[in-house]
Amino acid sequence: MRNLIILGVVGFIAQLVDGSLGMAYGVTSSTMLLAVGVAPAAASAAIHFSEIGTTVVSGVSHWRLGNVDWRVVGTIAVPGGIAAFVGATFLSSLDGDLAKPFVAVLLLALGVYVLWRFLRLRGERPQFRGRPSKLLLVPMASVAGLLDAIGGGGWGPVGTPTLLASGTMEPRKVVGSIDTSEFVVAVGGSLGFLFALGAQGIDFRIAAALLVGGVLAAPLAAWLVKRLPARILAVAAGGLIIVTNSYTLLGTAEPATPVVVVVMGVLLLAWAGLITWAVRQERRASRDLAEVNV
């Protein structure tokens, strides 16, 4: 029972981060499950089954708060779901770790670009023009869905920075659309795992514990997305992209533990500092706007 309660807390934290920044449910959950000895395929399966419930609640919450672009959802959901089914079906014969360093480098670059794009504005408010094209959305969804099934997390880490970097969508719309479309991805991945592993290969107790925690966190996360200004939300998301992918690359290089602690500590402090700076810039922009309107 104690372990299930802990997993419920993990699900709550993972969904709170995922629902507010558009990523990290799978990464957070899979990291914890693998740490306690759950096999990669079984961990990814449990995560996908729990996401069927959490993404429904998250999607409804984002929709009610106006955080969803339904055109984007309609474009990315189907190819993402199909790719997740394919990835889950062949999970036992594919090694997702082989692709992680290459994907991490690409996402790290996107994270740096997202930070640069929003931090360079200084006192100005960010502007969003145009809409993301299908030439961007369909390949992005296919790659993200495949990686999501193979690695236990990839839909948000790939989709969110890609859409943020495009500069065509408000960050809250990016997060809401990615979270809402993830329902189809979770269904596709879950069906693939049932096909490949059978019901006996899935621990539904783990899935249920993650689900309960995630469902409780989903409405709160959607509310945070609605309330946070675009600059702060984008800087928080961009920093998370850099931190998580830096950790992935460090894991690949396998340096000494003190080196990992120092590097990650510096990155976390820098991330906190950038968020603080973004908050100050947002307050400055609000004051300037108020003075103009007086």
Which helices and strands appear, and what pairs or packs with what?
Elements: H1 2-21, H2 25-35, H3 40-64, H4 70-89, H5 100-119, H6 134-151, H7 155-166, H8 171-197, H9 204-227, H10 230-253, H11 257-293
Helix pairs in contact: 1-2, 1-8, 1-9, 2-3, 3-8, 3-9, 4-6, 4-8, 5-7, 5-10, 6-7, 7-8, 7-10, 10-11
Transmembrane segments: 29-49, 70-92, 98-116, 204-225, 232-250, 256-279
Membrane topology: Multi-pass membrane protein
Subcellular location: Cell membrane; Membrane
Alpha-carbon distance between the two ends: 59 Å
Order of helices and strands: HHHHHHHHHHH
Uncertain regions spanning at least 5 consecutive residues: none
Rg, nearest Å? 19 Å
State the helix count: 11
Largest sheet features: none
- Look at the structure and give the mean pLDDT: 80
Given the helix and strand composition, which structural class is it? mainly alpha
Please report the total strand number as a whole number. 0
